[in-house]
Specification:
This protein has 20 helices and 19 strands. By secondary structure, it is of the alpha/beta class. Strands 1, 2, 3, 4, 10, 15 and 16 form a 7-stranded parallel beta sheet that branches. A hairpin with an 8-residue loop joins β7 and β8. The longest helix has 31 residues. Bound molecules: 5'-O-[(L-methionyl)-sulphamoyl]adenosine (MSP). 5'-O-[(L-methionyl)-sulphamoyl]adenosine binds next to β2, α1, α7 and β15.
């Protein structure tokens, strides 16, 4: 049989990748729905970084507007003080709880942001995209949006007889104000042309269809200022108005990377990073796929590369939310299962782009079957056999130019899944990328069962074969550590340390993920170390809260 190629010939060239999460309202502490967006973005960012792409991952907080003002007032503090408190006590700590590797954290109260927003608005005003007008419409403070007819429904129960928001089920407020308007309607045709020319601009396809249908109905101009309260960024030419909170918030994606600054270094950063990729929940798709590109077109800036809308975590068939008292705090899960399990579970169990229901039973079952038994046991068995039969070093055998068909099928699979997973990540299909990689976990478990190294070990004549089997399995672990690092960073780091790979191959995070399927990387003789338990047994009463 022909030698197994150990190089991947067509590896994508490194490129640039700027990724954002939505910025989160600081009216309350995060629940697992917010953490879900963060984890998905983090897996993508870590993957691209490990692939050598020029990656920048931005997250942050949305701090202006009526919703925050009302919460702060109800708690007897000034809005900025409230925002500071929530950012420090809840939103920044969330990033540690679930191991988020963001490069920057923007707050809409940062001076860099406020200056950039003022600059952007002034430009649009000077160039004739903004006019003053009167307005009367139904507003949802939960959404911070004047609601389109399609999202206004009749209230029930305590709100019977009132018009309520279809998302929040809370009464809408009739607002009548003198506002400034952005001439968004002028961009309808250009937006439709954009969706046509770039079919992957809005993803997945269901989200794209929804956005196209919305724009085809006809776009209205957008009210972009408010006068009835002052918690916001003043309109630069008329300080009796503050900027509409969504118009302010969307601009974080460019102010964070240098837009609007006079510093030449900031301008260079902006040129290097923009355009970006936005990950958003489907409830805020329209802001990102319609309003935001129209704003950018008006300012003469490039539109984003992609807008990807993910689904909701549901409880009882409805979007999990704090206001409906269905929110679960992320640490309720991580305290018991750890952050890796949190990350793995949500990325694996829910098709990215669709809604999914969280259940403690499903989490506990996947933890046990996939992480502890599937991956954790595989690693501990292989390393224990290396310790027992080869004095704890990497055996000879993974460099054999004419491997047996069973060994070759493992190395070929590693190459295949590495390429396929990279392609799936490029299409934002995180769950499919993990499923690709998991084929290697399952195949390696099957391989060990079939090859029975413990039987080979009893016969000194089969010593060479024993080495080849364990070397193949160990190379498989090396590839898995590299491929799974973006998803389960802590467990893979422990595995990397136990493989002795740090000394032989360098830091795990710097290993090219697109080359993870290349075989025979870990040198024979590399000393290994005891493996910490990757996914400890969990008492099921703790899990079945
Ligand atoms: N501040 C705005 C976003 C401005 S971006 C320029 C906002 N904030 S939010 O805190 O309400 O929501 C932030 C993100 O969390 C949204 O993408 C939203 O879809 C997501 N999620 C909130 N609840 C969720 C679930 N139950 N499930 C999945 N994601 C959810 O909107």
């Amino acid at each position: 049989m022909s030698p197994v190629p150990n190089r991947i010939d067509r590896m994508p060239e490194p490129s640039k990748f700027f990724l954002t999460t939505p910025i989160f309202y600081v009216n309350d502490a995060p629940h697992i729905g917010h953490a879900y967006t963060e984890v998905a973005a983090d897996v993508l960012a870590r993957w691209h970084r490990q692939a050598g792409d020029d990656t920048w991952f931005l997250t942050g907080t949305d701090e202006h507007g009526q919703k925050i003002l009302r919460t702060a007032t109800a708690n007897g503090v000034a809005p900025k003080e409230w925002a500071d408190r929530l950012v420090e006590s809840a939103w920044k700590p969330l990033l540690d709880t679930i191991d988020i590797s963001n490069d920057d954290f923007i707050r809409t109260t940062d001076a860099r942001h406020e200056a950039g927003v003022a600059k952007f608005l002034q430009k649009l005003y000077d160039e004739g995209h903004v006019y003053a007008g009167e307005f009367e419409a139904l507003y949802c403070v939960g959404c911070e949006e004047f609601k389109p007819k399609s999202e206004i429904v009749d209230g029930t129960g305590a709100f019977a007889g009132e018009k309520v928001c279809a998302i929040h089920s809370k009464p809408l407020e009739l607002l009548q104000e003198k506002n400034y308007f952005f001439k968004m309607s002028a961009f309808q045709d250009r937006l439709l042309a954009l969706f046509e020319e770039r079919p992957d601009f809005v993803q997945p396809a269901s989200a794209r269809n929804e956005v196209i249908a919305f724009v085809q109905q006809g776009l209205e101009d957008l009210s972009i200022s408010r006068t009835s309260f002052d918690w916001g960024i003043p309109i630069p030419w008329d300080s009796s108005h503050v900027t509409y909170v969504w118009f302010d918030a969307l601009l974080n994606y460019v102010t964070a990377i240098g837009y609007g600054s006079d510093d030449p270094e900031a301008a260079a950063r902006f040129a290097r990073r923009w355009p970006g990729n936005h990950l958003v929940g489907k409830d805020i798709l329209r802001f990102h796929a319609v309003i935001w590109p129209a704003m950018l077109m008006a300012a003469g800036l490039e539109v984003p590369e992609h807008v990807f809308a993910h689904g909701w975590l549901l409880v009882g068939g409805e979007k999990m939310s704090k206001s409906k008292l269905t929110g679960i705090a992320p640490n309720e899960i991580t305290d018991t299962f750890g952050s890796d399990a949190f990350r793995y579970y949500f990325m694996r169990a829910i098709s990215f782009g669709h809604d999914g229901s969280f259940s403690w039973e499903d989490l506990a079952a996947r933890y046990q079957a996939e992480l502890a038994n599937g991956f954790g046991n595989l690693a501990s068995r292989v390393l224990a056999m290396n310790a027992k039969y080869f004095d704890g070093v990497m055996p000879e055998g993974a460099h054999d130019p004419t491997p047996s068909p069973s060994d070759a099928s493992i190395s070929e699979l590693a190459q295949r899944v590495a390429v396929a997973a990279d392609e799936r990540i490029g299409a934002f299909a995180i769950h499919e990328a993990i499923a690709e990689i998991w084929q290697l976990v399952d195949a390696l478990n099957g391989y060990i069962t079939e090859q029975e190294p413990w039987v080979l070990a009893k016969d000194p004549a089969k010593r060479e074969r024993l080495g080849a089997v364990l070397a193949t399995a160990t190379e498989g672990l090396r590839a898995l550590a590299e491929l799974l690092h973006p998803v389960i960073p802590l467990a893979t780091a422990k595995l990397w340390a136990a493989l002795g790979a740090e000394g032989a191959l360098g830091a795990l995070g710097s290993r090219s993920i697109r080359a993870a399927g290349e075989w025979g990387r870990l040198p024979a003789g590399t000393p290994q170390h005891p493996l910490e338990v990757l996914f400890p047994r969990i008492e099921m009463e703790a899990a079945a809260k």
